[in-house]
Design a protein that fits this description.
The chain is α+β, with helices and mostly antiparallel strands and 167 residues long. Among the domains are: 33 residues, no CATH class; 49 residues, no CATH class. It is built from 5 helices and 9 strands. A 3-stranded antiparallel beta sheet has the order 1-2-9. β3 and β4 form a beta hairpin. The longest helix has 14 residues. The structure holds zinc ion (2 copies).
């Protein structure tokens, strides 16, 4: 029996599109998404459901029963993680970070063969995963691989956050 092309789970064309999305640059995907949202109300609605969060006015606000629209995902200023705004409000302890700064421990064995004239400034190795345990946090004394000593809510980076809009 000849294979029936119509019963294939995904057509070749769909797979090609998925591959194109996966390999496209972030800025290309953004440009395409903005264009589609501007041109097509149905797509605009679908993307809004994914990226926006609608809440009712907070207590104490003068305008009652007004809905607010905000981003559903934000970037945390402490952990630099993207988080789900609603989940963050409910859980309250999703963020774990070190409030201090890291200093290198020049007595650590990782620095045994370190020669500043050849290897440069030890501080430049702060973000090098190979040197993580040779740096100490001044907030808790933990090293670069120790979990954050403060557990709290994620906090939005106000410079990257869009203003609340009333609808
Ligand atoms: Zn700490
Ligand atoms: Zn965080």
């Amino acid at each position: 029996m000849a294979p029936n092309l119509h019963t294939e789970p995904t057509s070749g064309m769909d797979r090609t599109l998925e591959d194109a999305i996966k390999s496209a640059t972030e800025s290309r995907v953004r440009t395409v998404l903005l264009k589609i949202c501007n041109e097509n109300p149905v797509c605009r609605e679908a993307v809004s459901k994914e990226l926006l969060l609608v809440t009712t006015a907070e207590e104490g606000e003068t305008v009652k029963n007004k809905k607010r629209v905000r981003q559903a995902y934000e970037l945390c200023i402490h952990s630099e993680e993207e988080y789900n705004v609603e989940e963050n409000e409910l859980e309250g302890d999703l963020c774990q970070y070190h409030p201090g700064s890291r200093d290198y421990d020049f007595n650590h064995s990782k620095f045994d063969d370190f020669e500043p004239w050849r290897d440069g400034d030890p501080e430049d190795y702060e973000d090098d995963p190979d040197f993580a345990d040779a740096f100490k946090w001044d907030c808790c004394g933990g090293n670069g691989v120790t979990d954050g000593c403060v557990v709290t809510k994620h906090q939005p980076d106000e410079t990257k956050k869009t203003k609340l809009m009333r609808v």
